[in-house]
Amino acid sequence: MTTDATLSTHLQELRRGTVVVASLTVLQTPGYGYSLLETLSAAGFEVEANTLYPLLRRLESQGLLTSAWNTDEARPRKFYRTTPQGDAIATALRSEWTRLDKAVTDLDSRGDK
Amino acid sequence: MTTLIDRYVYTVLRRIPEQQRTDIDRELRTSIEDAVEARVAGGSPPEAAVEETLLELGDPDRLADGYADRKQYLIGPELFETWWRVLKMLLTIVLPIVVVALTTLRTLDEPSIGTAIGSAISTLITVGAHMAFWTTAIFALLERTGVARDELPGSNRRGWNLTDLPRYEPRAISLGELATGIIWPVLLIVALVLQQFTFTDQPVLNPDNWTFWWPFLIVVLLLEAGYAIWLFRKDAWTHTVTVVNAVLAVLFTAPAVWLLATERFFNPEWVSTLDWGTVEPLNWLTGIIIAITVIGAAYDVIEVAVKTERSRRGLPTKVPGTGSEYTNPI
What we know:
The structure holds 2 protein chains of 2 kinds.
Chain A: H1 3-15, H2 18-26, E1 31-32, H3 33-42, H4 49-61, E2 65-70, E3 77-82, H5 84-112
Antiparallel strand pairs in A: 1-3, 2-3
Chain B: H1 4-14, H2 18-41, H3 46-57, H4 60-68, H5 77-109, H6 113-144, H7 175-194, H8 213-234, H9 239-261, H10 268-273, H11 281-313, E1 317-318, E2 325-326
Antiparallel strand pairs in B: 1-2
Helix pairs in contact in B: 1-2, 1-4, 2-3, 5-6, 7-8, 8-9, 9-11
Domain Transcription regulator PadR N-terminal (chain A): 26-88
Protein name (chain A): PadR family transcriptional regulator
InterPro entries (chain A): Metal_resp_DNA-bind_regulator (IPR052509), Tscrpt_reg_PadR_N (IPR005149), WH-like_DNA-bd_sf (IPR036388), WH_DNA-bd_sf (IPR036390)
């Protein structure tokens, strides 16, 4: 395996899960698939449509998102919204993220001494 | 005419469970149309926008797999170890026993090198394939019904603990050897009793011996099983063990060889049903069984004697399966 391929595997492993945190956070205001995709990539999350769309349905089946069809506009869209349970999970995941970030930073400062 | 988008969506839907299709159909189309619209607004010609959007979504089969959320493997890492262990045990221990047993039975019926080899190979392939297939099928089923490793028989439900670590000190005999030491005599007793009634039209062994010698051998076999239990609990190789083992070996081997040599072992009526062409069946059977019995007994006596001597001198003993040696601290 080349260094590039190794790096990309590890990056993928590191990023896996961040999309969940981001989606649960963004969808506290209701949104539909494509709008979420736009928001996430504008915010700097590298996520592909073919990963995100199935993920939304999976989170819904886990009870972290609810969905409703909005037929008011010309193009009917399925809107997702984070449930209270999804909120709780997002909060837990984010505090874990902060803890890990601090832990990694601390590793550096320990090396400086 | 179906559009590119239709073709893409249908290809995805084909691999999705029916009850989810309507919803995914609507949602996926809207998402694609949204993306196309955004590209057109960005200045792309409509056809190119559709193509780019679909190419970005990628292989419809993979997308469908994502939606269906199905397992893309037969046996996951949770059950893999157990599956592999069971399969190895079946193929290396049970399969050879079955092959030898069936080949022996068939060769007794129709003795020729050709039958023996043919039967061995065909049994090996047929039974081996069945074992591998059914084991894998059962484990794939367990994987899909959500059975965790802890729930399988033979695993301890309370979870792993430090006391589960094997001691690796050379015990007199391991639990496996204890099981063999009990099962083997019991199997022989069962075979000895059953051959009188089943297996063949005429009993294989001489029924006259039921007056004394067969019951005597059954008692000796029971003593062999008792010896295994005694040795397991005693937990050490001593000279007493060597002597008891040797006495039991002689008690079994001497009468068996004597019965064989004086042609009282096999049932003459069963021997007369054998037709091995130019070969005289009785001589061959007698020779083979005497050889197996004597060599087996001698090997057993010598092995036990060697183990006892090593243990007495405190020589290092191999710990099975680790490549390391253990010396009993004296």
